[in-house]
Amino acid sequence: MRIILIYFFIFFTVISFFSCSNQINGPLESDLNESSYANTSPPIENFYPIPSKSQLDWENSKITMFIHFGINTFTDKEWGDGTDDPKLFNPTNLDVNQWTEIAKEIGFKYLILTVKHHDGFCLWPSAYTDYSVKNSSYKNGKGDIVKEFADACQENGLKFCFYLSPWDRHEPTYGTEKYNLYYQNQLIELLNNYGDVGEVWLDNANGEGPNGKQQDYNWNLFYSTIKHYQPNALISNMGPDIRWVGNESGLGNDTEWCPQPATQILFGFSNVKVWYPSEADISIRPGWFYHEKENYQIKDANQLVDIYFNTVGKNSNLLLNVPPDKEGLISNLDIAALRNWKNKLDEIFANDLFLNKKIVASNTRGVGNDYAPQNCLDNNINTFWVTDDTVRKANLIISLNTKVNINIFKIEEAIEYGQRICSFSLWANVNNNWEKIYSGATVGRTRLIKISPIFTDKIKLSIDSSYAAPTIRTFSAYYYPGL
Q1: Structural Rg of the chain based on CA atoms
Q2: 323 vs 76: CA distance, rounded Å
Q3: d(CA 365, CA 163)
Q4: The pLDDT of residue 265
Q5: Which pLDDT score is estimated for 33?
Q6: How many CB atoms lie within 10 A of CB 1?
Q7: Which of 242, 174, 160, 159 shows the shortest CA–CA distance to 205?
């Protein structure tokens, strides 16, 4: 459904990676020597590519809500064919404030509404087609769900985002060059009339239209249009700002680099790397649109927590679909699942065992607290530890007041300066000996690690290889039985 074939120019200044260093073999506490500090703290250098401000804000949000809602909701279909009577669309109790309020309660900051799916039915009164809410039963054709939704997002401090399917099984110009202009005109309506847009989600589904033809999408036209009217909007999936993780199962990659090789066909240039973070999409139900028969197939809190660890915990963002029902409401069953999920995450991460504990680093840049290792433990993503510019391998040791059980670790880099770490390991002090308990590759924005419980009073994080001076903004540990 989503095969990436895109081309576009991104303005990052980027450089190729250097080769990784060899891994450290069994770090010892005796390796931790004090650095020769200068009188000041040298500023940290960027390791290119780095995220834009919009990309960084999006990555730090970690989770996004997808909202599939349209005529398919009323026909009990996943993919409509564009022939259903628009009068069928008639949510009798639509409340977009309910959507945004539950999203805010759970912690979503970006909300993506399917304003047009493959069937071509539009949730706003587009001037370019009659197949829209203006010919539906909703508010006797006087409604504009996109406006209601965008306004509700703004009122709740959320980012209004939209999914506009390029594939259109209703529009007669689909399969001709005229359709690219049709699609551009609809983009312009959405980009101009509904306030700030956080993300535009472009699908690459490309089946036949009413005339039996497939469309040659003018992606460059679409990208330039979006950036012209909404320069801060991110273009995802079939766009240059966010890439699809490669599945619809909410499964991230064990090794996940935000820097990705640019190619001529994707970005208009090659032989460099661009910042291109991944997004992993999955629905809370088996389908993307609401189907009553799926009311008892909703993913429970345990499943959603596992998905969170496999997406957010693997340096991706989670895009979770929650579809409203025929009334225009998110069902109580879905809301209960979301609340149970949030409550369980809150419980898991309630007690950071490393918070403000004693920490020692093998190397630290400068003097004072600018880059002190204690910054890893202060629960503040704006502070971080970093080594001297030439140091690629380093260790952090946490000393606890007493022995405790640990089975979860969280590690985060200060990605605003680039993604750097390419291998690391975790060690626990057991009977006065260091035992390796985990080896990993990339860290990025977030790395969540689950292990069998270890009972210890001392943990070591070894940065075994890094492309540039490693940064850590978060190093925390938790114990949650039964996870």
Answers
A1: 24
A2: 12
A3: 44
A4: 55
A5: 32
A6: 12
A7: 174
Place of tokens 């036949």: 208
10 Å CB burial of residue 474 (0-12, 13-18, 19+) is: buried
Which backbone phi and psi does 276 adopt, to 5 degrees? -145, 75
- Cα(187)–Cα(262) distance, integer angstroms: 26
Which residue matches tokens 């949650």?
480
User: For 334-387, what is each residue's pLDDT tens digit?
Assistant: 999 999 999 999 999 999 999 989 999 999 998 778 999 999 999 999 999 999
Burial 391-427 (b: 16+ CB within 10 A, else e): bbbbbbbbebeeebebbbbbbbbbbbbbbbbbbbbbb
Residue 381 CA to residue 413 CA, distance in Å, equals 9
Tell me the pairing of strands 278-283 and 242-244.
Answer: parallel
Cα 142 → chain centroid: 35
Q: Bridge partners of 114?
A: 163
Q: Flag whether the pTM goes above 0.85.
A: yes
Q: At what angle do helices 332-348 and 301-311 cross, to 10 degrees?
A: 60
The span from the CA of 384 to the CA of 382, in Å, is 7
Q: How many residues does the chain have?
A: 483
Q: How many CB atoms lie within 10 A of CB 467?
A: 18
Listed residue (111, 85, 112, 92) closest to 326, CA to CA: 92
Which conformational region is residue 162 in: left (phi greater than 0), alpha (psi within -120 to 50 degrees), or beta?
A: beta
- Stretches in the chain below the pLDDT threshold 70: 1-41, 263-269
Distances (CA, A) of 57 to 236, 416, 448: 14, 10, 20
